[in-house]
Amino acid sequence: MPKIRDASELDGPACAAIYTPYVTDTAITFETEPPTAADMAARIAEVQDTHAWVVLEDEGRVVGYAYATQMKPRAAYRWSCALSVYIEPGRRRTGGGRALYEALFERLAERGFRTAVAGVTLPNEASVGLHTALGFETIGTYRKIGWKLGAWHDVHYWQRPLAVLPDPPEETS
Ligand SMILES: CC(C)(COP(=O)(O)OP(=O)(O)OC[C@H]1O[C@@H](n2cnc3c(N)ncnc32)[C@H](O)[C@@H]1OP(=O)(O)O)[C@@H](O)C(=O)NCCC(=O)NCCS
């Protein structure tokens, strides 16, 4: 039975292995050099400190992950975060993306984050489907905003509330 748990630095190699083909073979991410396992471990540690990183594990093996980072560095943005989610290719459309996002939303809301934002390189039927299914509001599309693998790519943005709480917002924890 697949389960979701909080990631640790030990998940660096598995998360790097899932992410690498999306870096090398697609424009889903605009990163062009795959991070090493050690790079990924460092990212997990940093993200766990401030936001949240969850993994999907099946029979002891990590088969997907999702995390949130700061949306933008300027102070007034600090209650908003940017999401990423990756499932290993053979496991897609089996509920993993939804389960990871739901677990992530819970953790982010607990830490006091108010809004989640996601950028999706178009076309990406699965990611558009996931964000629509999970109640994201469509914001708009940057045209020809990234050059990768010999082509310009559009990126569509989505946002979703994480918690409805009284204002002013308390500092995130
Ligand atoms: C996008 C991604 C994370 C979705 O995760 P997933 O585990 O495949 O999706 P789920 O099975 O949880 O699907 C949840 C809902 O999303 C929608 N969805 C998922 N895949 C879809 C597809 N191929 N076409 C249309 N809708 C889709 C559906 O509404 C689905 O609910 P349903 O199966 O009950 O109809 C996954 O496909 C993936 O890793 N893709 C490659 C990396 C990527 O694009 N990441 C996002 C970057 S923005």
Automatic annotation (TrEMBL):
Pfam families given in the database record: Acetyltransf_4 (PF13420)
Superkingdom of the source species: Bacteria
Domain N-acetyltransferase: 2-159
Keyword match Acyltransferase: yes
Keywords attached to this entry: Acyltransferase, Transferase
GO function term, MF aspect, one: acyltransferase activity, transferring groups other than amino-acyl groups
PANTHER family: N-ACETYLTRANSFERASE, UPF0039 PROTEIN C11D3.02C
Protein's name in the database: N-acetyltransferase family protein
Species, as recorded: Kribbella capetownensis
Organism classification: Bacteria, Bacillati, Actinomycetota, Actinomycetes, Propionibacteriales
